[in-house]
Inverse folding.
């Protein structure tokens, strides 16, 4: 049905009069000559390489021919419409709170961290990634006030399974920061061979992970 609709558009609208944009639920990043996509509506990743990546690169360069337009629209990568500005990706991280010795966390904040992590893990299981990536209220950028939370979340990891829980842990930390009126960004990065990781960042400082753990991942999406 989508392919037929796009073919009709191409048959009835001159290409010079047609504006295309990336499908609104897609986010992407380039890794070499390949493109990794995250479809936040479908909660899935996929990869373009070879000729398919070439078609998309031509589209980004504004040099896309009719054949490539048909290929990209037929697969739902682009659609007719005015481009929507992408949310900026934060600057590359240059430091982490985990590079310094974190203080002993207060017991009450550790308990809060465990509760927020439990809620976040339930959300990750039940909700699409589009719901998890909804922006949170804005706030202040204050790294010193983030330190007790980072310490508490690190201590909480001793009591729960922490492996493969980066998205839930990131969602939990961002919620705890927002509760205190602190701004942060939830960042999802990817690498090839394919792997994905999620972390929390404020400016150029990682709040939830050691710096070397995130440096091998290229951000594909970030939300405040």
């Amino acid at each position: 049905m989508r392919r037929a609709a796009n073919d009709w558009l191409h048959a009835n609208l001159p290409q010079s009069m047609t504006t295309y944009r990336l499908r609104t639920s897609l986010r992407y990043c380039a890794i070499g000559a390949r493109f990794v996509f995250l479809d936040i509506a479908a909660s899935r990743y996929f990869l373009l390489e070879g000729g398919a990546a070439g078609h998309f690169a031509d589209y980004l360069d504004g040099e896309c021919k009719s054949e490539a337009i048909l290929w990209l629209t037929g697969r739902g990568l682009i659609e007719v419409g005015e481009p929507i500005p992408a949310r900026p990706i934060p600057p590359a991280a240059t430091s982490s709170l985990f590079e310094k010795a974190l203080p002993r966390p207060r017991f009450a904040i550790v308990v809060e961290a465990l509760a927020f992590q439990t809620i976040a893990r339930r959300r990750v299981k039940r909700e699409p990634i589009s719901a998890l990536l909804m922006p949170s209220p804005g706030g202040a950028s204050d790294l010193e006030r983030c330190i007790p939370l980072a310490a508490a979340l690190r201590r909480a990891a001793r009591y729960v399974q922490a492996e493969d829980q980066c998205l839930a842990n990131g969602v939990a930390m961002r919620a705890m920061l927002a509760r205190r009126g602190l701004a942060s960004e939830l960042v999802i990065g990817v690498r090839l061979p394919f792997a994905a990781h999620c972390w929390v960042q404020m400016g150029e400082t990682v709040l939830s992970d050691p710096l070397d753990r995130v440096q091998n991942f290229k951000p594909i999406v970030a939300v405040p």
